[in-house]
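Bug #77: duplicate submission created two jobs. Keeping one. Sequence:
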Amino acid sequence: MEFDVTAIFPGQGVCRLRVAATSAEALAAAPALRDGIVVSARAIGGGRRRRADFPLPLF
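Kept job's structure:
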């Protein structure tokens, strides 16, 4: 699962990253966020959205 993460890195500022993790709880262990403080995290595309419309017959 991918997350859109906003983190503060001391001495470097604020960064917005896309991080892959197995769950929201596992974000803190992600190597990209090693020295940062996570401010917000939002899951991206947990699954494909299915269209609700059905094909019409062509007669």
